[in-house]
Design brief:
Blueprint (H helix, E strand, L loop, with lengths): L8 H7 L13 E2 L11 H12 L12 H15 L8 E4 L2 H12 L5 E6 L4 H8 L3 E6 L11 H4 L6 E7 L11 H13 L3 E5 L20 H4 L2 E6 L1 H4 L7 E5 L2 H11 L1 H5 L4 H13 L1 H23 L5 E2 L7 E5 L7 H12 L1 E2 L1 E2 L2 H4 L6 E5 L4 H16 L3
Parallel strand pairs: 1-11, 3-4, 3-5, 5-6, 6-7
Antiparallel strand pairs: 2-8, 7-8, 9-10, 10-13, 12-13
Helix pairs in contact: 2-12, 3-12, 4-5, 4-10, 13-16, 14-16
The structure holds pyridoxal-5'-phosphate.
Length: 391
């Protein structure tokens, strides 16, 4: 299921946008947006076909299809040890939109929210777009470094309302330990903060690291947590724009529904995408297991290959199919190195710009390795050759 033979480059060149195959000139390998090169589980496609054959695409319920909400609740209860209730799960058109909805529901103008740095840009963007202020908390780019909770102390003010957790953490690939999460949870209780926990990467972890949700720790932490998840990373459904928000406090849920505009204008999230995501949850576990096995082996090839390149150093991610590469020894900044790799090596990567990941990403590039061994080996060779040309 996960070999060069299952990757259809012709289709990807037509369909894969967001800095990927459809947006780069022919011959360039895009290791950019975290979106697998592999087609999704066939059961997901079958579920869409089955629904479509009835030829009814009527409005769905504003708060989501019961079958999807139930499937999500079962998943949280059985796989994540989170006592979630279907009644407080809202399907939304993507995790990105989910983050925005939570910020809109929880933050007022002038409020402050804490975000890690480096981390995916979506948090800061949503906080600021909703009139609030993002306070950056630096975090080590070595995923095995213990997160120092005292770093949060100096960032708290009477206006701090929320802390944004990204677990596993894009782009570092850190999977937070239970004790780190407990400390973050207790910190949130002490300062009366809401925890926005983005767990879209929770399925992508590498043994021996295991994902723990902050919402599974205890009731006091859970009731102040709002969980966001999605299907773009784990199941290759980015274009279906489907995700979910789970709340554990009825007031949180009410404010989230309001902020989603589902009742006022949008009238719920895309029905076909909820059908597909339900099949992802209920029928494609075997596919996910095989995908993770493949990712484990390609992670090792990728990180070892990157560490062999002059001036590059890179930790093994504990989760996420991302390599976050320290390129400082090359003497180039990330934007210049990006250009060199793109123009000379014909490989597209994500430069560690402030706008993508925060200040802590300067001197780094990010590489997505959800592809085949052959494509990654070719990309590594091209990267190596183009770096050798600058030394
Ligand atoms: C941490 C994190 N959250 C959210 C998203 C966006 O997910 P979606 O495609 O569901 O909007 C991404 C995508 O890269 C991500 O890395």
């Amino acid at each position: 299921m996960f070999s060069i033979g299952t990757i259809n480059l012709e289709i990807l060149q037509k369909n894969a946008y967001n800095l990927r195959w459809a947006t780069v000139p022919e011959g360039v390998i895009p290791l950019t947006a975290a979106d697998p090169d592999y087609p999704c589980a066939p059961e997901i496609t079958e579920s869409i076909i089955k629904y479509a054959k009835d030829r009814y695409f009527s409005y769905g319920p504003t708060e989501g299809q019961p079958f999807f909400k139930e499937a999500m609740a079962c998943y949280f209860n059985n796989k994540r040890n989170i006592p979630a209730s279907a009644a407080f799960i809202l399907p939304v058109d993507s995790a990105a939109f989910g983050i925005d909805v939570v910020c809109r529901a929880q933050l007022e103008k002038g409020d402050e929210a804490i975000v890690f740095d480096p981390v995916d840009f979506l948090f800061k963007y949503a906080i600021e777009k909703n009139g609030a202020i993002a306070k950056s908390c630096p975090i080590s780019t070595d995923p095995s470094d213990y997160f120092d909770i005292t770093k949060l102390q100096s960032l708290v003010s009477p206006r701090t309302k929320m802390i944004c957790l990204c677990n596993p953490l894009n782009p570092i690939g850190k999977v937070f330990k239970r004790s780190e999460l407990q400390a973050i949870g207790e910190f949130a209780i002490e300062h009366d903060l809401t925890i926005l926990s983005d767990e879209i990467w929770s399925e992508i972890t590498f043994k021996p690291f295991e994902f723990v949700s902050i919402a599974s720790l205890d009731e006091k932490i859970r009731e102040r947590t709002i969980l966001v998840t999605g299907f773009s990373k784990s199941h290759g459904l980015a274009g279906l724009r489907i995700g979910a928000i789970a709340a554990f406090d009825p007031n949180h849920y009410k404010s989230i529904v309001e902020a989603s505009f589902h009742e006022s204008t949008i009238h719920g999230s895309n029905v076909l995408s909820q059908v597909a995501a339900t099949a992802a949850l209920n029928q494609s576990e075997y596919w996910l297991t095989a995908f993770k096995e493949h990712l484990h082996s390609i992670r090792d090839l990728t990180i070892n290959g990157l560490n062999a390149i002059n001036g590059f150093s890179c930790h093994f991610p504990q989760g996420c199919y991302l390599a976050f590469v320290n390129i400082k020894e090359t003497g180039l900044d990330s934007a210049t190195l990006y250009k060199q790799l793109y123009e000379v090596g014909k490989v597209a990567v994500v430069p560690g710009l402030v706008k993508w990941f925060g200040k802590g990403a300067e001197g780094y590039i990010r590489i997505s390795f959800a592809t085949s061994h052959e494509i990654m080996a070719e990309a590594l060779e091209r990267i190596n050759n183009s770096i050798n040309q600058i030394h």
